[in-house]
Amino acid sequence: MPADRPRVLVVEDEPALAELYGIWLSGSAEPTVVTDGAAALEAVGDADVALLDRRMPAMSGDEVLAAFRERGHDLPVAFVTAVTPDVSLADAPCDAYLLKPLDRALALDAVARLAARTTLPPEQRELAALVERRSVIEDALTTSELAENDTYRALLRRIKRQESEAGITVDELPPELFVSPLSGGTI
């Protein structure tokens, strides 16, 4: 895990929200708050974890995250958004998906759990991210919608392959690593 106070990059295009998130996190983390994608790309080098607004005007959160990865920044990232999740989340490269309005407790918990993931080997961290996305999708869709969805079934296959690659099953991952409560059914 990073130091006792993980360095958190907060990227939020609404200045008042960005400032609020920074205040919330300042007691247990070292937040760096920026309000656009360009500033995020400059500030990411020092971060352990990022909370990233998914919808921003000049550069979307998806574009910012893609640029992070292209530049070799592999920190855990939570999308923070008002966009209701759907099955397309299966292919998002984020580690967690948080819906606005975000509250202080969830922000603090998400940062702590994502910071804890930095101690995992990359294969296990990817498994945790896939399972987290699966949980969010399962909470957003009905059982019948899931049963008929090829993208969801592909995500389940990816999770099985990732378990093999990681040398660990989902059930063996500590539950305290997950931001979203895991849905019922097979983990």
Could you please describe the fold and organization of this structure?
The chain has helices spanning 15-25, 37-43, 61-70, 104-117, 122-140, 143-147, 150-166, and strands at 7-11, 30-34, 49-53, 77-81, 96-99. With 187 residues, the protein is α/β, with parallel strands linked by helices. Helix 2 runs parallel beside helix 3 and helix 5 runs antiparallel to helix 7 (150-166). It is built from seven helices and five strands. Mean pLDDT is 91; it is low at 182-187. The chain folds into two domains: 7-120, Rossmann fold (3-Layer(aba) Sandwich), CATH 3.40.50.2300; 125-177, no CATH class.
Strand and helix map with partners:
Blueprint: E1 7-11, H1 15-25, E2 30-34, H2 37-43, E3 49-53, H3 61-70, E4 77-81, E5 96-99, H4 104-117, H5 122-140, H6 143-147, H7 150-166
Parallel strand pairs: 1-2, 1-3, 3-4, 4-5
Helix pairs in contact: 2-3, 5-7
Major sheet: order of its strands? 2-1-3-4-5
The CATH topology of the largest domain comes to Rossmann fold
Average pLDDT figure: 91
Question: Which percent range describes the beta-strand content?
Answer: 5-15%
- The chain-level structural class is alpha/beta
Descriptive tags:
187 residues, alpha/beta, Rossmann fold, 2 domains, five-stranded parallel β-sheet, 7 helices, disordered C terminus
